[in-house]
Structures are given as C-alpha cells and as structure tokens.
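Predict the 3D structure for this chain.
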Amino acid sequence: MTSARIVVSLVPRDMDALERALGARAHRGADLVEVRLDAIAAEVADGAERFAQLLAGFGRPVIAALHGDEGFGGFQGGLDARRAALLAARAAGASLVDVDLRFAGALGDLGGPRILSSHDVAPDAAALDARAREGDELRADPGDLVKLVPAARTGSDALSVLTWLAARPRGGTIAFTTGAVGSFSRLLAPAYGAPLVYAAASASAARMEELGLLPAAPGQLSVEHVRRVWPEGGPGADTGLAAVCGSPIDHSASPVTHGAALRAVGADAMLVPIDAETLEDVMDFAAADPRWAGLSVTAPHKAVAARAPERDASTAAIGAANTLTPAAGGGWRARNTDAPAVSAALREAGVALEGAHAVVVGAGGAAAAAGHALAEAGARITIAARREEAAEALASQLNRGASAVELGSGAADALRPDVVVHTTPVGTGGMGDAPVPDAWLRPGCAVLDAVYRPARTSLLRRAEARGALPVMGTRWFLHQALLQHVVIFRDVHGTEDAAGIPGERRDRIERAMAGASARWGASEDGASPRAVCLVGLRGSGKTSVGRALAARLGAAWIDLDERVAADCGVADAAAVIEAEGLEGFRDAEERALAAALAEAGEAGPGPPLVISAGGGIVERAANLEALADGAFCAWLRAPLERLRARVATDDGTRRPPLVDGAEDEFTVLDRRRAPRFDRIADVALDTDGREIDELAAALAGRLGA
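Done. Predicted structure below.
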C-alpha cells in the first residue's frame, strides 16, 4: 500500500510569523508543509536567504503556494510578482510550487514540478473532466500534479467528486471538496487515488492568531484528527471503508473511537463522518464499492435505515437502526446496537432492571431503543416527552404496557422512577440542561444520560449532588460502539459477535475505544489537554524535569516506569522486562498510559497531570495516538554523546540492553524513535547546558502557567 501523505498548510501574515510557526512546531504531524506566500511574496522575493533557512528548519518537503481570490488567498499582485516569488521559493528549497491553472501557462517554467490547481470548478463530472483536461495539457514535468477543489454545498457533492476521482489514474490527481459539509472527502481522497491530503496546523484558533497564522481553507481538519481517523500509514486502494452518517455529524466520537480500535489491531480500515442530507445517497455510493464494510447511522436517519430489506428483530420492534451492512444478496441489512447497550451500561453500574420503574425522556430513535431494551429486561416503562402525543405514539409502538406523560406536567413531576434514561440531545457540548425534574433525582435512582460530550453533563452532576447514581453516556456509547464495530468490521475480526473475540484482543480494542472517547469528550470546549507528557531518549531529563514541572504547576506527577512496575508488583521496570519480556513490558506500559490519560481526562478543574514516560513509549502506535490526542507532549533532546555520558554515570537503575548487535544503542534508538517523537511533540526542548528549573520554567510558560 502506498502511504498517503498529509500536507499541513501554513498561511503566515509575515516572515516573522513563519519563524514563530516553525519554533512552535505548528507543522507537527505533517509529511509535507505548504507555505502560502500570499502575504509574504515580496519578503520571499527580497529575502530568499532567510526563507531558505526557515524552509530547511521544517525538516520536510515544502510546497510553496501563492493564491489570490481564485484560491481562497490574499495575494493581489500581478504575474511578474507571482513569478518572482515562486522562483525565489523554488531557489530557497521548495520541492513543489502550487499555481492556479489560469496562470500556469503565462508563468511558464518555474524550475521543477508544479501542482496545477483550480478552486472554482463545479462538483460535477463534466466540469471536473474539462478542468482536468486543461491541467493534463499543461503538465510539463513528470512530477506535476493536477489539483481540483470544488466547494461542496451538500455531502452528495463531495461524494460526486470522489466518484470522479476514482476514475482517474491513481497518484496524479488531488481532488476533494472545501467547506465543512465536505470535509470528509479530505479523509477519503487518498483511498480514491489522491497522493496528498491537506490539513490544518497543529494549533488552536487562539494559538494560530498568536503566531500570526491565517486560516488556510474552509473545511480543513486538523492533522491530529486526520491521523486519529486514518489507519497507520494512511488509506490506500485496499483500505476497508465505513462511515457514520448523520446531520449534523461534527459532534460524533465514532470516527476517532473506531479508528483507535482498528489501529489497536493493525487493521487497514477506517470510519469517516459523512454529513448526509439524505442517507440514500451514501448507501448508493457505498454499495458501488466492495471496500465499504458498513455504515453507522445516527440522527436523523435511523428510521430510514430501519427500512432496509433485511433487519434484525430489535430494528423491527424499535423502528430505528443504527447499523447497516451489505446483505449477502445485495442491498443492506439493518441492525440496532443501541438497545442492548442501554441494558449493558446500566447493569455494568449495578442497576437491577427487572421490576424497576424506568422513565425514558424523549420520543426519538434513541428513546425507542432504550424503551425496548428496558422492557426486554423486565422494567415498567413510562415515556416522557415535551409533546404528549409523541410520548403516547412511542408508548403504543413499544406495545409493552408502556405509559406516556408530558414533561412539565403535574403527572410527570409526581413520578418517582427507579431508573431515568435521558435520550434527547439537550446538554451536548455543555449547552443547556436536560428536562429532568429534580424530584426524580433521589437516592436509589439511577440516571443514564445519552449525551456523552461532555462526559459529566449537567444532568449527571445534578443527579450526583442529590444522591442518585449517575451513569455516563460514554458507557452507553462505548457498549453500542463495540457491538457495532464488530458487526461492521467483521472481516477484520473474523466474527460479528463481540463475545467471540479472544480476551486479550477484545481488551485491547475496548481500551483503545475508551481512551479515544474520553479524549474526544475532554476536548469538546477546546480546552488544553489535561495531561503533559515528557518524552525523549534515556538520559534526556524526563524524570527530573517532570518532577520540577509538577512542583511548579502544583500538579500530580507520574513516573510511568514506576507505575508499570507497581502495576506488575515488582521493584522496577527492569524487573518487569525480566519477568514478562520486552513485549510484556510494552503491554503493561500501554495499559498504564491509557489509565493515566483516562484519569487526567476525568479529573475536574485544576493543573494538568504531568507524566514522565519511558523512552520507548513511542514504540507502540496506540501510545502515539493516545499522546497526540490526549496530552501536551514535550520532547526533551540532547546530543547523543551527552546522553551516553549521563547514562554512564547513572548506576542506580538497572536497564537491560534494548538493541542486539554491535551497533551503538543510542544511535539505533535515536534513528528509530526521533521521527516518532517529532510527530507527537508540541514543543521540543534542547536540554544540554540548561538547568532543570530553567527547563521546567520554559515548559510552564509554554503552557501559559
């Protein structure tokens, strides 16, 4: 499989901003960097030496692009100025230059391969064909690429562009759509033949403004998000495909949750979010490609999904489905994993359901699934909704003796349920409070909130304060996600039954899904990660700096090697390796990191958890994912000779060799690990000649403390 490559776009206001972006590692996670010259064209033409130094600092191939209104850019100069800036950028070391098709002929030879781009093309096959022919005729270098980027008004527009791209020769054409509704096309484009995909810088909007970087294009996803959804190495021609379909869909944790599970088992597959105006368009698109394993379905399309020719008993009873997979004879098969997940989440919390009085708040597809599951478990059901007629309709549909009540009425306030299941979207993103009366929230009552972002909703906090048992929506989500995951990716796991997955593999999948979901929920308000992790080779100072940083922040501190040893009941990390082998140690290390990040994500307001990790933490893809998503990572560096000298004097810790053969261990490990440290590092600090307190102060300052 040819690896897909991610381009991170940087649009600096001036050359100083570009230098700040380099220092802040805003390009973290990129395979290539696109530097937009829109605002710095004159500076580049007049100061190519400084520009060359900055380009070299990125340590990656650079694309120099220059656009005006025709390409969402701000350049206002003429052809001569365009040519001068692009030639200067090429001389400074840019591997590719991006020019709009309308100017490519007039600009002539620019000293090497070009990206021949167009952003004002319509998202239909005829328009794309015509513009692609223009690009093909202008190709002069074997490395030239054609890039067509229409604007998407609907998800169907983006699907049309991908269908068109699939018919082009692989590797020579970049095509996706701009705009939030078509952002999923960026994730899928490499699976349909595009060699590059463009992503936003690794920085929040506030940080971008601070650095002096402008937004590059509407609909760009962050590089971290792309990597969380993609399989390791990116998608290709053989990648298994699936999607979660809804509208809106940007709130969904499904892509990163399923992505983490797939990477945990090394699968070449992914699930992307599609903002689907109509579910039928996505079903038709996926049915035409045998790589599509299935669809996860969310509001407002669950009732449509339930109309599939084949459906399980739960779907037929509920009238809603959240999972579609290709049927053996063609068409689709519908299932509902929401219902069994409700019972599983409550039973996991120790809630007895048989004979209990359960109130389901809401009257939509999720409420139907909850009512069905609770009735199957032997509970007495009341449906409570703002519109009494909607509650009565669902109660009648369930046909289990369920009653109905209007929320806000005296009859509703007089209820004293044993179980409350809230299924409306109120509370998502922390907006609003679920319409559940305080009178229901009392000791002995269990409260399950379907909202999982944030994990601790206003409803759950109210329930806990009044002595009721809060059950987080993340548990409902994770139970249904695991059941759904195995159904959709049955070819990956060799079974459609989660219970049929061997224990260790299932544990790995569940840990990956839980960690990804927790980190997604913790980031809903754009807040800083709840953990700071120090990474680097042995001897780089992670333990000393981590301890000093925690003291400065007033934060808790974990030495991860010590945590692993304690978890395994031995004296130190070396003893774990002696007893369990290196892979056994890595397994324990992965579990310890996931647990630490989960603890950090669940903690309330306060300073972040500080983690000093072992140098090999980056050996596992799951750890790279967890750190990139859930922690601010500081890479501590020093010359290898300095690290060797430090370790040579550290005779208080037993450390078995990690490299076989005569080659120097530090050289081998640096060669293997440095690119991985680089990928996840939010900041890189050279420690040679610097005091511990100085380094801790520098990190605290970078964290805004």
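The mean pLDDT is 90.
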